[in-house]
Structures are given as C-alpha cells and as structure tokens.
Write a structure and sequence with these properties.
The protein has two domains: 43 residues; 126 residues, Transcription-repair-coupling factor, D7 domain (Aspartate Aminotransferase, domain 1), CATH 3.90.1150.50. With 170 residues, it is α+β, with helices and mostly antiparallel strands. The chain has six helices and four strands, in the order ααβαααβββα.
C-alpha cells in the first residue's frame, strides 16, 4: 500500500476506508459488465430476411477492388452520420445511387437499430413483419408505406422510443 493511501485510511478510519474501497471496486465491476453487454449487442448478428435486392451492381462500380472497398465501408456504417458520409461519397464518385445500393445502406441502418434495441431477427412474410428479441416476437401488419425497408425503420424507431420511455420510468 502506498503512503498516500495509508494517510487517507488513517483520516477516515479503517472500516470506512474498506467500505469506500469495496464500493469503488464494485462500481468498476458493474461498469465492466455494462460495457461488455454493450459490446455484445454491437457485435451480435441480426438475421434480416426482407426479400429485397441489396447489392452494388457491376454497372455502378466497375472496378472490383473499389466495389469490395465500398462493401466494407457500407458494412462498417455504425450511425446515421456515417451512413450520410458513405451516401455522399457514392454520389460524388459514382453518380446517382441505384435502388439496390440504397437498399443495402438501409439494411445496414436497420441492423444497427436492431442491435441497439436487442432485436435478433427481422422477417417479412407477405404483409406481415416479424420482429424477434430474446423474450418476445412481434407481428406487425398494415404497412403504411410501399417501401418495406422504410416501414421496418419506422417500426424499429417506434420500438426504440417505447423502450427508452420504459427505461426512463424505471
């Protein structure tokens, strides 16, 4: 034990010092657990089965190396700002973005929201949208838009808001 720590221990008393030390250690352990849970959610794969075309065509990006690099950039999108940056880069370098490539970006955005709120699987079957977490399965119908990916984003954002409201009350 360092001299400074002994000086602090003498000032506050041994028992109180041990209690404070124990609380500090417990706080660090809890912070580590929370960080691990966040890391697990970020790395967790989300199964997305939506039956839409989502790719970069050979006509849009002709160079295979550039195409692979762009797939990596799109895959690494982790927030809205990065999504906008990649979209801007695509527009600047290659022109108007085909719908299939726009879909690819939307799917990555959907994956990110799903990870954040603990969704494991998103599936579209006819007019039904299924969203699954570890402890529940939601079935949604009555699409409000013709673009299924926009509909999924809206539903996930609604779910996220409801979860945030629920957390703020607890």
């Amino acid at each position: 034990m360092e001299v400074n720590n002994i000086g602090h221990m003498v000032k506050v008393g041994y028992e109180m010092y041990m209690n404070l030390l124990e609380r500090a250690v417990e706080k660090e352990k809890n912070a580590d657990k929370e960080n691990n849970i966040v890391k697990q959610n970020i790395n967790k794969e989300v199964k997305i089965d939506v039956n839409v075309s989502a790719y970069i065509s050979d006509e849009y990006i002709k160079d295979p190396i550039q195409k692979i690099l762009m797939y990596q950039k799109i895959s690494n999108i982790s927030n809205k700002e990065e999504s906008l940056d990649v979209t801007d880069e695509l527009l600047d370098r290659y022109g108007n973005i085909p719908i299939e490539t726009q879909n690819l970006i939307k799917i990555v955005e959907i994956r990110n929201i799903a990870r954040e709120i603990g969704v494991n699987k998103i599936c579209v079957n006819g007019e039904n949208l299924f969203i699954e977490t570890n402890d529940r399965k939601l079935r949604l119908t009555n699409k409000k838009t013709n673009d299924i990916l926009v509909y999924i984003q809206l539903q996930l954002n609604d779910l996220k808001e409801k979860l945030n409201e629920k957390e703020s009350y607890t």
